[in-house]
Amino acid sequence: RPLVEERMDKYKELYDFAREVVAQSEARFDAVDTKASNYLSVFTVLLGGAGFFVKWVADHLLAPQGLLPWLLVILAVPTAFLVAATWLSLLRVLRLQDIRVLPFDEAIVQYFRANRLVDVYFNVARSLSEAWVANQAANEIKIQKLTAAYRMMILTLALILLFSLLYAVHAWTGGAGTG
Question: Contact, 64 vs 179, CB < 8 A?
């Protein structure tokens, strides 16, 4: 009898640990999605701003005269491209990706009824472990995509800042309205 109780306690601990680890994995998955969603919101606004600057460059600097207008034209294209590419990259992070969860249906209820508690603890813990492995792989892919998107964001923001500074200098020197 003590051996059965010891096994029961051991598998109960394993089951509790597996549940906690899977819950942490799911929370990490949600945190990555939340971060990507926040970044996407900011870049949606920047996408509109980049469109404005590209249109302004096309309207006012189609035939650039001088170094500063040329620099604005040269920076406008990669800046707009990077804003759009970063936006799409963030959207890819948010693409629907399934995480593995254990089913809860009549078959599971019957499994619980038909098996000893010690076996239920062990087999559910094993299933949770398998779900954790699958979810970790999905999390790693998401994190890699988010990291790449974040690096693109930094580069994009640097180009936007440089473009904005050059635009301000261009406007200050009297060239913003006419090109």
Answer: yes
